[in-house]
Amino acid sequence: MSGNMNLTLKVWRQKDANSQGKMVTYPAKDISPDMSFLEMLDVVNEGLIHKGEDPIHFDHDCREGICGMCSLYINGHPHGPKRAITTCQLHMRSFKDGETITIEPWRAAAFPVIKDLAVDRSAFDRIQQAGGYISVNTGGVPDANATLIPKVVADEAFNSATCIGCGACVAACKNASAMLFVSAKITQLGLLPQGQPERYRRAQSMVAQMDAEGFGSCTNTGACEAECPKEISLTNISRMNNDYLSAKLFREEELHHSSGE
Amino acid sequence: MSLDGKVPQGPLADKWSKYKFDLKLVNPANKRKYDIIVVGTGLAGASAAASLAELGYNVKAFCFQDSPRRAHSIAAQGGINAAKNYQNDGDSVFRLFYDTIKGGDYRAREGNVHRLAEVSVNIIDQCVAQGVPFAREYGGLLDNRSFGGSQVSRTFYARGQTGQQLLLGAYSALNRQINAGKVKMYTRHEMLDVVVVDGHAKGIVTRNMITGEIDTHAGHAVLLCTGGYGNVFYLSTNAIGSNVTAAWRAHKRGAYFANPCYTQIHPTCIPVTGDHQSKLTLMSESLRNDGRVWAPKTVEIAEKLQKKQITAAQVAEEDRDYFLERKYPAFGNLVPRDVASRNAKEMADEGRGVGASGLAVYLDFADAIKRLGEDTVRAKYGNLFDMYIQITDENPYKEPMRIYPAVHYTMGGLWVDYNLMTSIPGLYALGECNFSDHGANRLGASALMQGLSDGYFVIPYTLGDYLAKIGPKKVDTSHPAFAKTKQDVLDHVNKLISLKGTKTTNEYHRELGHIMWEYCGMARTEEGLKKAKGMIQALKADFWKNAIILGKNEEVNASLERGGRVADFIELGELMVDDALMRRESCGGHFRLESQTPDGEALRDDENFAFVAAWEFMGENQPEKLNKEELVFEAVHLSQRNYA
């Protein structure tokens, strides 16, 4: 097909968490501009497999921009050069014939490399497990319309709730701070009436876990917001700081893991 | 053999409440003596794991993704139905039940569907209590919209990301129980077999996808919540990782596979552009509220459009065929999914398709923009249009969208009774993984409903009954059945690893997909299906000779993971073809060319095919045995679906 491109890829290859990694150069030939970035990697990998070489490992799943599994640091940007999209929605028409593309994993101490371009983001799950929820059992809840929620509040909570937990914010931040991610959940639940009883406790627990995981602190650079595929706003961080400060000054609770019994 | 679905006796409306009362209970102090295994943590799995842990059971949950939040439930766009009648427009539990039975073309089980409609009301309450930010009106009450196949507004939604918000709600409930120590979560683990002890499911075998370690886990019951198998078609709207392996391996251990040929083809997907394509993207059905579907009237005009000699705008009004409006004036562009899909394919088959491949029809917003203004259209559909622009590099505000049907959801799955138990006692299947609630065609906004219904409100009751009956006596992994099953899995993995042929597993998968789409897709014939069967058998034999699997088991090995899944898809593909061959009728999205009305609509054969086909595995390379569960309709009369 005419209009196809030939590219050079510089890819981070790392056998596993304990091995030393290095950049390796691969040609990517006859690439259609209609391919997504991940499909381009699929094509390169098919070629590698045919040659008996270990394919490049990367995380991906829904390829619709919503599951948050795909990552990739492309030419110095999480999810590549375009704003507000995930890597799976990045298409090769955003690149030029003959271009060299550098592909690296997310770089953060709290996200250790698993293999090549895939990293372990389970720290994010542990932060959510520390308090990113409303404590309610199944059944025995009030009718959904018994709790009135103004439209503007529901919309604002929704904006925060759209975080896909991909980790681009951490990857973009010079301190590898997770504050945009953590603040999005704190804001969503902190805005809603259902989230009030645990609001300050939640801020304390999640921040404590975030620190324990080794994420850095926020210096208001704004790279996280600029690189977030879902355009989560920095305002969330202000809200989180507010709740955290209120908790520390006025409502500090002793945190312990509930026994569940 | 005739199968018993165990639907309780008595009036439809009282079945579930009476049944719940009759079920045995496990007392709270005894619940901690039971261990439950949950495989898959999407809507069904996460809600089940959380609810069972809340009750006091010890839960071990497994998913192949790096986090339960990635489950493919997250991609659902449109909404979730519930018979709340908040709109005062005449909705009721019975109406939701009725619409679902009719929409499923009378191939679903009445008792299950009525329960689903009953429970739908509780689901919304539950999700709101968890902080799911559903759309609201200015007065603070929940907003609703209507969706394909119904005449009332009963769909609750969170913009175009309802699945995401519902899954994150269930994920948060799951996280709470992980924190409480009642759920132990295993991510990046793939289930490769079920362990059956004295005829009961007592555990699973998993592979740790980081280290390759093959491990066994024991429990009093095993819940499969592993989603659908649409990826058998290679290209589908499913996530790349969605696979049938857990369900298929369970099938080979004795769980019947029901109605495997029931696949939903969704009409509004972005068309395929080339062989490199890895998946298809769905555009929300809501677009058909304002977009008009058309194809050029003649093959000549279509060819000019395909070669880009003319643009869509240059096609005169009288040269356009608004085929849905023409054939179905009452429903127009809003006919159900199966009808819209079949008609689009007919256009392409006649040579009247558009786009470079000719495999597309137009979804045109020009009239809507003229009528409503571009700003209004942008407010309603802006995010969908943006997504379309991103993928196709075409601007739907200026030229019509190209759409084509794609595989979306599978209504077949493991056979379960009213308790959601498979034909292996102690093995359950929830959500898309089972077959029970959607019949031959799934209505919009009812997949999310079933996942959460099964997980939050059905399994906590029905599982207790089984557990109370078997008692808390532990089976542990020292039982010889565990070592034996683990060895079987290791043998299978080693067999895969030893394949050093010339063709990648991806190439086999693509080939399988072509066969399935061509012969077991939207329209099927006896002749085509017979041909497909031979082709799949040949593909299977070739796979085990010529596939390439690189590397070793004891490492991160995507090629091994994929190889195992593709091998299972090939086997399932053959069963789907057998099932389609046997079913000499058209129903829902399953269209047998030999069975149609004079107008070319799907013609059911209730006399001979009002049953669930539950296939029983009889050994490698043996024909499977057909078991039938007769479908009994007490509350609705079977009638021909007609949208003209």
Structure in words:
The complex is a heterodimer of chains A (261) and B (644). Chain A folds into 2 domains: 5-114, Ubiquitin-like (UB roll), CATH 3.10.20.30; 122-258, Orthogonal Bundle (Fumarate Reductase Iron-sulfur Protein, Chain B, domain 2). Chain A is 33% helix and 13% strand. Chain A contains 8 helices and 7 strands; from the N terminus they run E-E-H-E-E-E-E-E-H-H-H-H-H-H-H. In chain A, the strands form 2 sheets. Chain A has a 5-stranded mixed beta sheet with strand order 2-1-5-3-4. In chain A, a hairpin with a 2-residue loop joins strand 3 (73-74) and strand 4. In chain A, helix 2 runs antiparallel to helix 6, helix 5 (179-191) packs antiparallel against helix 6 (199-212) and helix 6 packs across helix 8 (235-250). Chain A is elongated and about 60 Å long. Chain B is an alpha/beta fold and 644 residues long. Chain B has 18 helices and 23 strands. In chain B, helix 4 crosses helix 5 and helix 11 (366-372) runs antiparallel to helix 12. The mean pLDDT of chain B is 95. At the A-B interface, helix 1, helix 2 and helix 3 of A face helix 3, helix 5, helix 6, helix 12 and helix 13 of B.
Summarize the structure.
Chain A is an alpha+beta fold. The longest helix of chain A is centred in the last third of the chain and has 16 residues, at 235-250. Chain A is 33% helix and 13% strand.
Please identify which CATH superfamily of the domain at 266-406 in chain B we are dealing with.
Succinate dehydrogenase/fumarate reductase flavoprotein, catalytic domain
Please report the first level of CATH classification, the CATH class of the domain at 266-406 in chain B: Alpha Beta
What class do helices, strands and sheet pairing of chain B give? Answer: alpha/beta
The proportion of residues in beta strands of chain B is: 15-25%
Widest beta sheet: strand line-up of chain A:
2-1-5-3-4
Based on the coordinates given, report the CATH architecture of the largest domain in chain A. Orthogonal Bundle
Pfam families (chain B): FAD_binding_2, Succ_DH_flav_C
EC number (chain B): 1.3.5.1
Protein name (chain B): succinate dehydrogenase
GO molecular function (chain B): electron transfer activity; flavin adenine dinucleotide binding; succinate dehydrogenase (quinone) activity
